[in-house]
Write a structure and sequence with these properties.
Number of helices: 29
Largest sheet: 9 strands, mixed
Structural class: alpha/beta
Distance between the termini: 76 Å
Shape: elongated
């Protein structure tokens, strides 16, 4: 023990140990510690991460459905991440730095054990998360959990016992300080960095199929590992080895500075040279479109209006499935009287997918059910591409002083939407939005009102085949000044579903060298009911002027699995305050943020209530198609199958599985099957809603909704 240690009191020794081993050492390897924490939190805490592992278990090790590759790459990626975190942490801690002293013996325990801990954290977290996943094929889930746990134990044994196992003469990387990391170790680090760069370029070149081939879990692990590797080697080791401070602050300042010039998120327009030109479409006023529809439908009453709320892939899947199922059930009675769909976020994606497939069906000639096609399209993996774009090229873009649109992560998401379709439907979804409504077939489609939000003003902005300039407080994005006549259908739906930070704000260039940015429509109001209520009021006013009233039927597709029903007749309409427990300990910080977030749901409820009241005041009817029916059915089924009352833990597991996070763009097959079964069986109260709609479209009267 050196003299300085001998002179320190016990308290001072303990204080220095805590400071150097428990605080300074992890701070120095902070990128690796942070990377491990992110992955542990993602897989161990978030429902999206656990649903990704549920997908892994569903895929298993089959060859035909890519399960073998998906799980093998996750296994390899986790192994590589563990070794990288451990190895680069040891490299960084092998030297003494003038600007960051770590005196011995106070820092020695931290130098030895922090690399080992960050090395085993990820496989341990995945093992624990697999153990928590409730999925079909539970035996495979248990097997995968054991595989990752065994990996963690074997790696930890290697990290601790490698000197004895491989007869290494001395642990020079930690026990003795180096003047410079040996060239062999630096070559390995450069090889790892080069591999990450190659993967980045590959994702830019193949933005959809390659990520879907690799799988979102493996991409998440490799992406976070690559970020940690770059931060550890380039931003920390290189400058500190030359006597300077870490370059993290410099990198952040450059990212802020380059942000003035490198905005690479323009709203995507169709390439006229590469395909069919944009149709010269004169957008009718709502009343004109209504008159044309009424003539083709043989009368104006009743008329169907649909609102489709947001909620990521669950909203898209449920919205499109409900619309297709209603068409299957009611045929032309429904499709000819469906006037407009107002969508937000995932609801917009589902509505646009339904209309696109409907247009392709009309062009092809023979009628067929759209239910299977919409489920096939929206059952795809859209998460892997956007994760690849987020963690690789779009992150690198932040440090390049000019925009590279190929690196835009929204491009990855929208391209994955497009490639999920086949044949003519793919051309329509990748092509100009206005081409959907070109020609006689376009007159037979319901109008789309895709809601988004303007960042600079907070206003509603709408993309529609209708001239929506008459709606109060609405920015009509097809006005000539916004130069969006050639916007792709995928980009129009995507503009409504740009939930930051999964998707970036999209830039719209305005004539006159100005621009605005668009984000998710749910920032303004998450149901689409505000826009639909304004549209119905406008139609009532314009049609009323010509002594031609109409009777609207409003279908509310609510995509929140926990929401209270809108109508009192269906045991909804409660005005009781609800919400999570208030945490007084963090109220100063959390209260404003939580209030802003919760008002989103409150505005949705108000908008739905106002639209429903308006419709009923006009003599119309309201029908609900709530996603909450799926959770109700699953809970009822579990209670019926259980020999005794369900425990709180069992109920929590069912809720966790079916409460898909609103930011998610992938959904496990088991969750999709639960949604399909509920809709196909008309379970969870849906049979009553189908009957209401049948009665209303037949000219009958349905029970009053009486919203709160």
């Amino acid at each position: 023990m050196n003299a300085s240690v001998q002179n320190d009191s016990l308290f001072m020794q303990l204080r220095k140990f805590v400071w150097y081993s428990l605080l300074r050492v992890p701070w120095l390897i902070g990128y690796n510690v942070g990377g491990a924490v992110v992955l542990v939190g993602f897989f161990g805490i978030t429902s999206q991460g656990q649903d990704m592992l549920r997908i892994s278990a569903e895929l298993g090790f089959g060859v035909a459905d890519n399960g073998l590759l998906w799980n093998l790459l996750l296994l390899i990626g986790t192994f590589v991440a563990s070794l990288t975190f451990w190895y680069t942490s040891r490299l960084l801690l092998a030297r003494d730095y003038e600007s960051f002293p770590l005196p011995s013996p106070y820092a020695d325990l931290g130098r030895r054990w922090w690399p080992r801990l960050v090395g085993v954290a990820v496989p341990l977290a995945i093992a624990w998360s697999f153990n928590q996943v409730d999925a079909d094929g539970q035996a495979l889930v248990i097997t995968l959990s054991r595989v990752y746990f065994a990996m963690a134990i074997l790696l930890l044994a290697f990290y601790v016992l490698r000197r004895s196992l491989f007869s290494i003469s001395r642990d020079y990387m930690i026990a003795e300080r180096l003047d410079e990391v040996p060239e062999a170790h630096r070559r390995r680090a450069r090889a790892l960095l080069l591999s990450a760069f190659v993967l980045l370029v590959a994702f830019v070149a193949v933005p959809v199929y390659l990520p879907q081939w690799l799988g979102a879990p493996a991409i998440a692990v490799l992406g976070v590992t690559g970020i940690a590797l770059f931060g550890t080697a380039i931003l920390t080791y290189v400058p500190m080895s030359k006597g300077g401070p870490a370059a993290t602050l410099t990198a952040l300042l450059l990212a802020v500075l380059f942000g003035f010039w490198n905005h690479n998120h323009p709203i995507r327009l169709a390439d006229e040279a590469g395909g069919k030109a944009v149709a010269a479409l004169a957008r009718p006023a709502p009343a004109e479109r209504f008159a044309a529809m009424a003539q083709s439908a043989g009368g104006a009453e009743p008329v169907v209006f649909v609102t489709a709320a947001g909620g990521g892939i669950r909203a898209a899947y449920w919205t499109a499935s409900v619309l297709a199922a209603l068409e299957d059930e009611l045929g032309e009675t429904f499709s000819k009287r469906l006037f407009a769909i107002s969508g937000v976020s995932g609801g917009s994606v589902g509505a646009a997918a339904y209309v696109t497939l409907k247009r392709a069906q009309l062009d092809a000639g023979p009628d067929a059910s759209l239910l299977a096609p919409v489920r096939t399209v929206l059952g795809n993996d859209f998460l892997s591409p956007v994760v690849a774009g987020l963690l690789f090229p779009d992150l690198a873009q932040r440090f390049i002083p000019f925009p590279v649109t190929l690196a835009d992560r929204q491009r990855f998401l929208e391209r994955s939407f497009e490639l999920a379709f086949q044949g003519d439907a793919r051309r329509l979804f990748a092509g100009p939005f206005q081409n959907l409504y070109a020609g006689a077939a376009g007159d037979r489609l319901p109008s789309l009102l895709l809601n988004t939000t303007v960042v600079e003003t907070g206003q509603r902005a709408v993309l529609s085949n209708l001239d929506v300039g008459g709606l109060p407080g609405v920015v009509d994005l097809f006005d000539d000044r916004y130069q969006l006549a050639a916007i792709r259908t995928s980009a129009a739906a995507g503009a409504s579903a740009r939930f930051t930070y999964v998707s970036p704000a999209g830039r719209v260039d305005i004539a006159g060298d100005d621009s605005v940015r668009l984000v998710d429509g749910g920032y303004f109001e998450n149901s689409g009911a505000a826009t639909m209520g304004d549209l119905i009021a406008l139609l009532d006013d314009r049609i009323g002027d010509s002594d031609r009233k109409f009777r609207p039927v409003l279908i509310v597709i609510n995509n929140d699995p926990t929401s209270v029903g809108l109508c009192r007749r269906d045991n909804g309409g409660s005005d009781t305050l609800k919400g999570g427990r208030f945490n007084a300990a963090v109220s100063e910080v959390a209260a404003p943020i939580r209030a802003l977030f919760e008002t989103r749901g409150a505005r949705q409820q108000i908008a739905e209530v106002k639209a429903a009241r308006l419709v009923e005041a006009m003599g119309g009817g309201v029908v609900q198609m709530p996603l909450a029916a799926v959770l109700d059915v699953q809970l009822e089924t579990a209670r019926a199958q259980a020999a005794e009352p369900l425990s709180e833990e069992a109920i929590a597991k069912i809720k966790e599985k079916y409460l898909e996070p609103p930011l998610g763009w992938s959904m496990s097959e088991e969750v999709r099957k639960g949604m399909d079964q509920t809709l196909d069986d008309r379970a969870g109260g849906l049979a009553k809603q189908f009957q209401y709609l049948t009665t209303a479209l037949g000219g009958g009267t349905i029970p009053a909704c009486e919203p709160m």
